[in-house]
Amino acid sequence: MEDKCTMVISGSQLMSYISDFTTICWFMEPEFQEAVRRLHRVVGNAVVDDRYIVVGTGSTQLYQAALYALTSPGGPEPVSVVSASPYYSAYPEETDYLRSGLYKWAGDAYEFDKNGTGPYIEVVNSPNNPDGTLREAVVKNRGDEGKLIHDLAYYWPQYTPIIRPADHDIMTFTFSKSTGHAGSRIGWAVVKDKEVARKMSKFIEMSTLGVSKDSQQRAAKIMGVICDDYKNFKSDELFFEHTRRVMAERWERLRQVVDRNQVFSLPKYPKRYCLFSGELIEPYPGFAWLEAKEEEEEIDSQKVLRGCIKVQGRTGSRFGVAQKYVRVSLLSNEEVFNQFLERLSTINSISNGH
Amino acid sequence: MEDKCTMVISGSQLMSYISDFTTICWFMEPEFQEAVRRLHRVVGNAVVDDRYIVVGTGSTQLYQAALYALTSPGGPEPVSVVSASPYYSAYPEETDYLRSGLYKWAGDAYEFDKNGTGPYIEVVNSPNNPDGTLREAVVKNRGDEGKLIHDLAYYWPQYTPIIRPADHDIMTFTFSKSTGHAGSRIGWAVVKDKEVARKMSKFIEMSTLGVSKDSQQRAAKIMGVICDDYKNFKSDELFFEHTRRVMAERWERLRQVVDRNQVFSLPKYPKRYCLFSGELIEPYPGFAWLEAKEEEEEIDSQKVLRGCIKVQGRTGSRFGVAQKYVRVSLLSNEEVFNQFLERLSTINSISNGH
């Protein structure tokens, strides 16, 4: 779709800080907001009517904007931030790097449910990075002490059945995972409460004084082309059908290799009814979450992959679980993915190194 | 220069997070880095040989990246951050909004020089926003307790004589003020120390996982066109000569109006020798820093402008000084600037409201 999606910006366009001073998120391009709402309506993965949209420099920034919005003005103690393990490896670092007095990382949400006290924020990442599971909040029965952030970066039809239009207080999405344009650093939040949307926008103002308009316009254009194709049924194969097919093929080949060499196992995902496709379908996550089959907990699967086949994964310990787990991206280009499978197929046993 | 600067991006370009994993600032486009170095060499406003370049989402993000780099790992107490008043109104907020345990805003650098103690960071904004003065560090004789950040957003020939190639530990610049493209949210830092550059890059990774590649490429293109013109002398009027002429004309008209109605005064700026133009020239700051002439300190000049002539300025109290001062942007488009002057010329005295 390279040509249809080509973006042209003249030297004098998009120069101002301001997109629309009459709206809460004054640095958001109106075309971007429209495109986001339209894309969600086409896919049916999130409720956007009567919701506020906030644009961010990737969902990374929006996660931090949400923490700020839910904790400012701050109480005497920082609010605990938790997520069920295995949790996305960037949450701890993104929460704690500035040693904020507003919030602090408090680890696994299951653990907090059992032993934690006080006000908290639970991040629900669904489908979950690294393990691809569809998730719900874990911490229960805390009255109004808890707030939720739903990180729905991977809740798109190429990765998962769309089981319902998500309808939570704060939902974050990203251009990176919806269409693959990570380099543009564009994310957005769908927010129920006006005051939360205002504070998130204020955070982004203080953090980066807005979000690249060049990239907002490019995202709007590309989302528009995808939606137009669904409206006109003009393509031989529509965007999410195409990307889902690629993911399905990769997963089929991956499972063959993993089953054959009996060194790692992969999660099994139940089929669910997908409202978008109208079929019972399987999830095809963006990551392989590999677990070493040997029984000792001490096996370092990241080290095995690196040492034996020179493949870079991310160890389970970064996600709050044992290092017998390792996460490998399946979203590389075709050549890199083929190399990965070829090398993975050469591993026969962990103990003898190969 | 609209056509020469037109940017075309196809649908499949600039999709990855990564620009160059072999460099410290792995999310920086090589073309952007090259363009930045070339522009500084053409203008002569900063030493870039043997320096690291770090790209950021505007200089706003780079200011915060520098605070992080200079204070992490954190000591028992947050480090004091100071700047000589009148200081840029965004520094206090950008320093304190997350209640970081690493650093905290401590106000006026002159005050800190007299009464402050302990480790500190001084931000030197030169030419200074709001008052346009060329500045040097204010806090003296503290051994190695102090670190400096030089915010050189306005150190370009349209605003000021280039008195020397700046050569400080951390210098920040922005696309917004060099060419006027605020909407792209592109800034860069020129950094002497490798470890500081690494930490600043790490901050940007944790804050926004990189910087829009669309905007980096657009900035590279536009800077390249400007530099090519200086190389070939192809334009009737080169970029900085053109923009300087616009600023000079605005200042001449502004001073006429201000002198005539005798309500406000403007700073006088000494002529300095400009290495870029090879002439003795006057500064033409991006802001009018107006001071009410009435002697009472209580006069609220922002209120006067808003109430009498419906002009939005920013009060001196936001910059750490009396509210008889008000800052008005001179970087608006021609029509808005003309309106401003027309309305300003109708103010005859503050006390009777008009």
Secondary-structure arrangement, i.e. CATH architecture of the largest domain in chain A = 3-Layer(aba) Sandwich
| Strand line-up in the sheet with most strands of chain A | 2-8-7-6-5-3-4
Give the uncertain stretches of chain A in residue-range form. Answer: none
Report the major sheet of chain A: 7 strands, mixed
Number of domains as seen in the coordinates of chain A? 2
CATH homologous group name of the largest domain in chain A: Type I PLP-dependent aspartate aminotransferase-like (Major domain)
CATH topology of the largest domain in chain A: Aspartate Aminotransferase, domain 2
Write down the Rg of chain A: 21 Å
Structure classification of chain A: alpha/beta
Arithmetic mean of pLDDT of chain A: 95
| Total count of strands of chain A | 14
CATH class of the largest domain in chain A: Alpha Beta
The percent range for strand residues of chain A is 15-25%
Distance linking N and C termini of chain A: 41 Å
How many separate helices of chain A?
10
Oligomer: homodimer
From the spread of the alpha carbons, the general shape of chain A counts as globular
The pair of chains with the biggest contact is: A-B, 55 and 55 residues
| Residue share in helix of chain A | 25-40%
Description of the structure:
The structure is a homodimer. Chain A folds into two domains: about 30-230, Type I PLP-dependent aspartate aminotransferase-like (Major domain) (Aspartate Aminotransferase, domain 2); about 240-345, Aspartate Aminotransferase, domain 1 (Alpha-Beta Complex), CATH 3.90.1150.10. In chain A, about 35% of the residues lie in helices and about 20% in strands. The first copy, chain A, has ten helices and 14 strands. Chain A has helices at about 30-45, 60-70, 90-95, 110-115, 175-180, 195-210, 215-230, 240-260, 300-310, 335-345; strands spanning about 5-10, 50-55, 80-85, 105-110, 120-125, 145-150, 170-175, 185-190, 265, 270-275, 280, 285-290, 315, 325-330. In chain A, the strands form three sheets. Chain A has a seven-stranded mixed β-sheet with strand order 2-8-7-6-5-3-4, sandwiched between helices. In chain A, strands 9-12-14-13 form a four-stranded antiparallel β-sheet, with helices on one face. In chain A, strand 3 (about 80-85), helix 3 (about 90-95) and strand 4 form a beta-alpha-beta unit. The longest helix of chain A has 23 residues, at about 240-260. The radius of gyration of chain A is 21 Å and the shape is globular. Chain A starts with 6 loop residues before the first strand and ends in a 10-residue tail after the last helix. The mean pLDDT of chain A is about 95. The interface between A and B is large, with 55 and 55 residues. Strand 1 (about 5-10) of chain A pairs antiparallel with strand 1 (about 5-10) of chain B.
